[in-house]
Each structure stands twice: as structure tokens, then as C-alpha cells.
Amino acid sequence: MTKFLLIVDYQPGVIDTPMTEWAPEDVKAHMAYYTALNDELRASGELVEHLALSWPDEAKTVISDGKAAPVITDGPFVESKEMLAGFQMVDVESLDRALEIAALVSQVPGPGGIPIQQPIGVRRVMEAADFEELNPLG
Prior knowledge:
Helices cover 28% and strands 26% of the residues.
């Protein structure tokens, strides 16, 4: 089995209206879809974790050199569109299965039940062996 991170960020897909402006029933349908999908993945043993993150206006960025006090700033902001909104980590037999699940995530409904076609990033989680390959002396 191989772990993959399915990354949901603030790219809107085919729906430009932010979720904060959707009708309450559309938000409920959106979240119900995620709940049902995650329940299926949990039942199949493929779901490792899933989390949604707070809104971008609550984000902070920290920079530190380990000597001086850390510099803490607001942001990044949603304008970057690549800011993480949430994720699912799956443990599956193949990249193909991870891509199938990502397609299911991408078709989550938006306003009026229209699949939002949100781009979902798929990244394999590295294992210790991956790092050993980087260090031939290791």
C-alpha cells in the first residue's frame, strides 16, 4: 500500500462564488458529499486522515533563524489560490486508485448541485527508503 495526499486548495474549479456566499442548502450538500465519500473510504480501509483548515484570514506565516525572535505575519491570503484548504490522506494499492479518489473529490457539488470540478493535487507521501536513496552514504 502507498499513501497519497489529496490536496484541496482555493482553486475554484468551475464555480467562482466563494463558499461563504453559497446558499445554506448548497453548503450542506457539499459537506454531506465529503462526509459520505470519507465514510466510504474509511469503510474500505483507504482513508488515513481528512481535515479541513480554517479560513485563510486566520493564517499566519512564521520565519525564524533560530537566533532572533520569530517574525510572524498575517497570511498568506486566498489571492494566492494555492493556499491549502484541506486534504485527505489515503493509503491505496496504486497511483491509479489515488487518482480515482481525487476525481471523486473534484466532483464535489457546489451551488445548485453542479460538480465544481475543483483541481485536486495528488502527491505520494515519501517513505524512509526515499530519503535513503537521496543519501548514498546513508
